[in-house]
Amino acid sequence: MSRITNIFKALKEKNKKALIPYITAGDPHPDLTVSMMHALVEAGADMIELGIPFSDPMADGPIIQRASERALAHHVSLSHVFKMVKIFREKDAQTPIILMGYANPIEAIGAEAFVERAKASDVDGIITVDYPPEECMQFTSLLKEKNINSIFLLSPTTELDRVKLIIEQTSGFLYYVSLKGVTGAANIDIEQVKSRVAMIRKLTNLPIGVGFGVKDAATAKEVAKISDAIVVGSRIVQEIENSNKDNLIINISKLMKELRQAVN
Predict the structure, then answer these.
(1) Active-site residue 92, yes or no?
(2) Which residues on adjacent β-strands are paired with residue 19?
(3) What global pTM score does this model have?
(4) Among this protein's residues, is 60 annotated catalytic?
(5) What's the total number of domains in the chain?
(6) Of residues 46, 60, 222, 228, which has the active-site annotation?
(7) Under 8 Å CB-to-CB from 187, ≥6 apart: which residues?
(8) Which of 22, 58, 59, 164 could form a disulfide bond with 49, CB atoms 3.0-4.6 angstroms apart?
(9) CB burial of residue 259 (10 Å; 0-12, 13-18, 19+)
């Protein structure tokens, strides 16, 4: 089993939910990324979603767009992201690392090369926002061969037939996008999310994570009641944006501890 599967199994036995923070690799500076990853784990993160900086992040709102811009200003590339994961692994061999990004960087080096490098870096899961499940079966097959989970997004508007197709190609967990729009765009309609998650659960035993609209501890607490994982991105990236190098680790750790307490 993958690290991701093992984490969900262990948490379920304790009647706990996974807390998954997102940060963009290289934001605010490449030298700080690995330290932030360790700090988030120490403060209660069960997994880390590490964003690959990209110039045209279509699923991300302005907060994460700015994070990509800051990282790209430091010339952070896919190679740098893999190196960050390898450095993180020198001290942490347990916490699952999920790379989140877009198809262009993968296509630029080729799917096989990407998967080989992800495996060599000890990555656990991949979220590729703009890879349609109908067109990336070869990619998901390559990931499966290397025991890397392929994680797909489900939205409030995903039709039932397509939900089933996505489930067939997903491993690790399903990522339910709690709202229509980009990350951090609006407040979550908890009742709508509850209804959609219940529908998805009838079709699969995969864990279900919810993200794209968890803005505070109160929302995280409500989402934890109806999901298996809570993904927090824009709120953490906003904290990074509002911090300086002297208080950055303190601020994101404090936020993560608040989220952890709420989810528990």
Answers:
(1) no
(2) 230
(3) 0.95
(4) yes
(5) 1
(6) 60
(7) 179, 213, 215, 219
(8) 22
(9) buried
The bridge status of strand 125-128 relative to strand 149-151 is parallel
The amino acid occupying position 201 is R
Closest CA to 98 of 80, 81, 111: 81
What confidence score (pLDDT) does residue 58 get?
A: 80
Which residues face 149 on adjacent strands? 125
Cis peptide before 28 (omega within 30 of 0): yes
Q: How far apart are CA 101 and CA 68, in angstroms?
A: 11
- Domain region containing 101: 3-263
Amino acid type, 70: R
Catalytic option among 49, 124, 228, 239:
49
Q: Which two tokens stand for residue 226?
A: 């109806």
State the CB neighbour count (10 A cutoff) for residue 19: 26
The pLDDT tens digits for 138-166 are 999 999 999 999 999 998 889 999 999 99
Task: Report the alpha-carbon distance of residue 83 to residue 105 in Å, rounded.
Answer: 16
Element (H, E) at 103: helix 103-109
248 confidence band (pLDDT: 50, 70, 90) = very high
Contacts of 159 (CB under 8 A, 6+ apart): none
Residue 249 one-letter amino acid: I
Check which CATH number belongs to the domain holding 197 and give it: 3.20.20.70
Mean pLDDT for all residues in the chain: 93
The pair of structure tokens assigned to 57 is 């992040």
Would you say 133 and 152 are in contact if contact means Cβ atoms under 8 Å apart? yes
What is residue 184's predicted lDDT score, i.e. its pLDDT? Answer: 47
Q: What is the pLDDT of residue 22?
A: 97
